[in-house]
Design goal:
The chain has 37 helices and no strands. It is mostly helical and 886 residues long. Helix 1 packs antiparallel against helix 3, helix 20 runs antiparallel to helix 21 (497-515) and helix 28 runs antiparallel to helix 29. The termini are far apart. The model is unreliable at 7-15, 19-47, 60-66, 114-147 and 216-233 (pLDDT under 50).
Length: 886
């Protein structure tokens, strides 16, 4: 039972007993009142008495805590209850001794605290009692059922006292026989209310506040009694004298019994000491303890004999041990000596102290072993045996399970090693095992107790979820963003600036990945988060963390560049270059390789927009990355760079470097050896798409088999690159599939051309001008190509649609932004205009076609795009001939 409940129950019983005291002091002891006060007090006198009780209740409710009245009432109540419990135990030796022991212990506890604890009258009880009395006084009729009223009051008092005792002994019930004796008495033994009246009489006999409140006023001058305060006290003594004398006689009898018991105990102690060899001091200590706990006299002999046996067994156990640690042996020796003197509490304290020392030694040993396990784990991780390292960290955490913070630290390291296993080897089950370990770590670092450790775990959990997203678990990325957001609630800039900045960086990474899934709002949030991180991750303070964030910022800027922001690409190249100033190959070889790979990506995009020198630099950057990103060390990262190298080589091949094309196809096929559909389905689909691009370019050079393989590769990619999962990537592959089908159509496959148009139109459903303007322009150009070919084969409606598609593409493919792409589309527009001119005999349209091709030829010449120059020159010459300008 909690302290608040105990205090409430105590206050209730004080109030109830105070009400009883008011009634008794007027001669209203229920049994007396039932028979008629002083041999026949009229009901009218009882009514006055109740009115006085009502008035006194109002005064009791105004008493401050610890008033003398409250103290006196509590003392009298507990003394009376103690009396009834002892009488019951003596009268009923067959009753459960545990009840008497616990009940008397409660009485001792209350008696020991009554003078120091805060006790008060409970208004919740006195107020309704006063109202009830008022109701009786105001009731109908001229007479009152005095005995009934008195018994009602008595019942409330008895119930309050019993309920407090019952609550303190729960779950052990009160014996029914005890409740009966408590309410009605037994033989010559008084019931509780009689014993309480006797104890109140003693208190009221001495001048003071307690006497005054119960004897002053009308209670001392009730009609038919006619005595003042002094006479009232005398009358009370006479009224309760018999009870008090009876109690005295009981006490005398108990004293005699105590003397007889002492003699019996002495004989018992001597017999047990002789028979069992137990020291007298020990037996006396045990006997005293039994008296303190209220063991019934009839049970003492058996209980003492049993305890003597326990002592003998304990001493034998203490003496038998001989190979203990010195600390344990010393504690046992001291405890044995104290046991022999009967000082049980001191012996227990010595053993507890010894246990504490052994626990400290055990914990020290466990910490040392855990440290060795952690160092072994580091060696295992150094050898790329990440699973073994994680198992060792788990073992270390188990060893220090008594220290939640230390165990948490080891669990984080175990999860980190499993994350490395998953990230470097594409081991998705390892990543999921890491999530389970992080959940365990969170339970050891509650947010309310260790908020920063909780935030650290949330941050690391987010890192693992982001890795899972790379393997195709789409829900993991949203969970990663949520985990980083949770971490930032505790990892504030004010509290932990560097940790805040690192989590901002990680959040930005996840948002950047989300932006690749079609979440347009995520990309600017990512750039903002990287910028926030760099406010604290200063190069002079944390050079490698600064370099990491510069690298990541470059990734976000590169994504902006992909979506048409021409200014973002040079900024991305600059960010990667800055990162490489600190991420050197000597210091962090794998991170250096990662940034070289990313730099290659930015240079590749610049190259695709006409900067041929950037393409050559991209190839060099990818090949540099592969010097450290080996297949053995980091198979998936190696595959990523192989894929990217293939992209750069393909771009060079499209510009006329025929030797680069087979190398591009070989790079894609190498990447697919590690980028499997089962391990990384979306990356597998990306590389299948890119392989299709390489094969399609070879097909454009006349390799029909390569062209058919390209169509198969694109269709394979679309099995994972679905519109729902990755809408922009799906659109890209639809566009590429259209390109391959278009080339098949060029070679006589008439069914392929409508399928190409359908693929382009599908791509444009996601490749919108608002979302990805340059990609939208590319697909518009490609759609124009397919429609142009249909028009040239007799579809009159297709040619105007082709012109419209090319003109739409040129709204974004401007000469300033993407000169090479502008030249290609302008040359295509010239072909469409020329076809329409031939179809309808329009010289003006033919003249426009010539202007278009001459513009394209100027740009090809400037860019030294020889292959395209040859095609454009032949078209220009043909148009001039048709216009008669040769």
């Amino acid at each position: 039972m909690d302290r608040a409940t105990a205090t409430s129950l105590a206050s209730t019983t004080i109030s109830a007993c105070a009400v009883a005291g008011l009634a008794w002091m007027g001669g209203g002891v229920p049994s007396v009142l039932a028979a008629g006060i002083a041999g026949g007090v009229a009901d009218r006198a009882a009514g006055r008495l109740l009115g006085e009780v009502r008035d006194r209740l109002a005064r009791l409710r105004g008493l401050p805590a610890n008033h003398d009245v409250a103290r006196g009432v509590r003392q009298a109540q507990i003394q009376a209850l103690d009396r009834v419990i002892r009488d019951f135990a003596a009268r009923r030796p067959d009753a459960d001794p545990a009840f008497a022991e616990r009940a008397l212990a409660f009485c001792r506890e209350v008696q020991g605290h009554a003078l120091g604890a805060e006790v008060s009258v409970n208004e919740d009880l006195t107020a309704p009692l006063g109202a009830a009395i008022q109701g009786i006084l105001a009731g109908p009729g001229t007479g009152l059922a005095s005995a009934t009223v008195a018994e009602q009051i008595a019942g409330m008092v008895e119930t309050a006292v019993l309920e407090e005792l019952r609550a303190r002994l729960a779950p052990q019930p009160l014996p029914p026989a005890f409740e009966a004796q408590f309410r009605h008495g037994a033989d010559a033994l008084p019931r509780f209310l009689d014993a309480y009246g006797a104890h109140v009489t003693k208190a009221i006999s001495q001048p003071g506040p307690f006497q005054a409140i119960f004897t002053a006023g009308a209670l001392a001058r009730i009609e038919g009694l006619g005595f003042d305060t002094a006479e009232g006290v005398q009358a009370l003594a006479e009224r309760f004298g018999g009870i008090e004398a009876g109690l005295g006689r009981v006490e005398d009898a108990q004293a005699r019994e105590a003397r007889l018991a002492a003699a019996r105990h002495a004989e018992l102690l001597a017999a047990i000491a002789r028979d069992k060899g137990v020291p007298h001091d020990v037996l006396r200590a045990l006997l005293a303890r039994m008296g303190e706990t209220g063991v019934a006299e009839a049970a003492i002999e058996a209980r003492l004999a049993a305890k003597a046996e326990e002592y003998v067994a304990l001493r034998a156990e203490l003496d038998r041990r001989g190979n203990d640690r010195p600390e344990a042996a010393a504690a046992r020796a001291r405890a044995s000596r104290l046991l022999d003197t009967g000082d049980l509490d001191a012996a227990r304290a010595v053993l507890a102290e010894g246990r504490g020392r052994l626990r400290a030694l055990r914990e020290q040993t466990a910490r040392e072993e855990a440290g060795l396990a952690a160092e072994e784990a580091q060696v295992a991780a150094l050898a790329l045996r990440y699973r073994e390292a994680a198992a060792l960290y788990e073992e270390a955490a188990a060893l220090v399970g008594f220290d939640a913070e230390a165990a948490w630290g080891y669990l984080l390291l175990a999860a980190d090693r499993m994350q490395a296993q998953g990230g470097e080897y594409g081991d998705n089950p390892a990543l999921r095992e890491a999530l389970v370990t992080y959940d365990r770590a969170l339970s050891l670092a509650p947010r309310a107790v260790r908020p920063l450790d909780w935030a650290t775990t949330q941050n690391d959990l987010g890192n693992t979820l982001a890795r899972l997203d790379e393997s195709g678990d789409e829900a993991a990325l949203q969970r990663a963003v949520a985990a980083y957001g949770a971490a930032l609630e505790e990892r504030t800039r004010e509290r932990a600036p560097l940790a805040w900045a690192m989590t901002q960086n990680n959040l930005a990474n996840a948002l950047l990945a989300l932006s690749g899934r079609g979440d347009e709002a995520a990309l600017p949030r990512a750039v903002a988060a990287y910028g926030a991180a760099l406010e604290e991750l200063i190069r002079e303070r944390v050079p490698l963390a600064w370099a990491m964030t510069q690298n990541n910022l470059g990734n976000a800027l590169l994504t902006l560049g992909k979506r048409g922001d021409d200014e973002a690409l040079p900024l991305a190249v600059a960010a990667y270059g800055a990162a490489l100033e600190e991420r050197t190959r000597e210091r962090v070889p794998l991170d250096w390789a990662m940034t070289q790979n990313n730099l290659g990506n930015a240079l590749l995009m610049l190259g695709e927009r006409g900067d041929e020198a950037a393409l050559q630099r991209a190839v060099a950057a990818y090949r540099a990355a592969l010097e450290e990103r080996t297949r053995e060390r980091a198979p998936l990262a190696w595959a990523t760079t192989q894929n990217n190298l293939g992209n750069a080589l393909l771009a060079l091949g499209e510009r006329g470097d025929e030797a680069a094309l087979p190398w591009a196809v070989a790079a894609y096929e190498a990447a697919l050896e590690e980028r499997t559909r089962e391990r990384v389905p979306l990356d597998w689909a990306m590389t299948q798409n890119n392989l299709g691009n390489g094969l399609a370019t070879l097909g454009r050079r006349g390799d029909d088999e390569a062209l058919r393989r390209a169509v198969a590769a694109y269709r394979a990619a679309l099995e994972e690159r679905t519109r729902d999962r990755v809408p922009l990537d799906w659109a890209t592959t639809q566009n590429n599939l259209g390109n391959a089908l278009l080339m098949l159509g060029e070679r006589g496959d008439d069914e392929a051309l409508p399928r190409a148009v359908a693929a382009y139109e599908a791509a444009l459903e996601e490749r919108t001008r608002e979302r990805v303007p340059l990609d939208w322009a590319m697909t518009q150009n490609n759609l124009g190509n397919a429609l142009l070919m249909l028009g040239e084969r007799g579809d009159d409606e297709a040619l105007p649609q082709a012109v419209a598609a090319y003109e739409a593409a040129l709204e974004e493919r401007t000469r300033e932004r993407a000169p090479y792409r502008w030249a290609r589309t302008t040359a295509n527009l010239a072909l469409a205009e020329a076809s329409l001119a031939a179809q309808h005999g329009e010289p003006a349209r033919l003249r426009r076609a010539l202007l278009h091709v001459e513009g394209a030829l100027e740009e090809y010449t400037r860019l030294d795009a020889t292959y395209d120059m040859d095609i454009a020159t032949r078209l220009r010459d043909r148009l001039r001939a048709e216009l008669g300008e040769n």
